[in-house]
Amino acid sequence: MTVSPNMRSVAATDRSIEAACEYLAAGELVGVPTETVYGLAANALDESAVRKIFAAKGRPDNNPLIVHLPDVAAMRQVVRWPLDPVVMDQFEAIADLWPGPLTIVLPRSERLPDAVTAGQATVAVRIPSHPVMQQLLRRSGLPLAAPSANRSKYVSPTTAQHVVDGLGDRVSMVLDGGACTIGLESTIVALGEQPRLLRPGAITAETLATRWNIPVESLLPVDQRPVVLEAPGMMLQHYSPRTPLLFADPSASVPAGRVGRIAFEPLSPEESKTFAVVRVLSDTGDLNRVGQHLFAAMRELDAMGLDAIVTDTCAAEGVGRAIMDRLKRAACRE
Ligand code: AMP
Ligand code: MG
Hints:
With 334 residues, this protein is of the alpha/beta class. Helices cover 29% and strands 16% of the residues.
């Protein structure tokens, strides 16, 4: 973790948002709050600014970025317009889920620098609901390319401090808009002949399938795990803490050493005692709460020098599909 001694986040106010707009217009990077996770933002129309994102994150340049917009009207800046009629119908059936934690992959405009889309013919766009991000998008008038504000492959940030911890010496400013309310990266869906779920999130596959009147299964990759780097968020190892992460198994013994425990609901006192530290993510096992606090718990326990972290699991449906997706990637060591 690179902590820059001088770097601090700045509370989001009219003035600090104005300062962030100036940095962005000048081609610099700003850490920004969204409802999903914190983003590392740059002007999506400025190729050299976009390249700084890849350099700061250590992100491979074949992994395209999500472009954030204030509203549907702004889509014309980055999307090839008009959409073809089939895609337009699919889009209209889900457009009311914006602003929110949903990213839609559509044909790109020629204006967009290749660096944003990793040379692909499509662009991923999102209209976030976070009021600070909304204000920043409107005031700057810029489409903002913003992947998660973490070093590539590490756990996504859900507080301004997480951004400072990981990228503090590589950004001009971090705007603090509070802890993220969703806490998991956006759902990504690609529209086309047949819509496809590229990454599960808080807007569930079930919700999308209902809107399109299709079975959930038809949205999912054939083997649930594409091997092609179509959405490199799907690269298998991703979002990982450095400490080995294991799934709780009641029939197995607790691993040796100092072990941390991530619990989705309160543990019995006897079970708690077997761990060096326990973080309970929800009083009632509410998976939205679990999603909200999961990454912060992973980061906190990862910083404690434990021998292992054991986590609860859940059924991979609804928001649980996104939680299990992130946990499987975090547990994977290849
Ligand atoms: P991040 O914002 O760090 O969560 O990363 C953005 C995610 O969006 C990655 O998983 C990308 O692969 C995905 N993405 C961005 N643009 C596209 C695109 N044109 N087609 C498919 N996936 C995309
Ligand atoms: Mg990311």
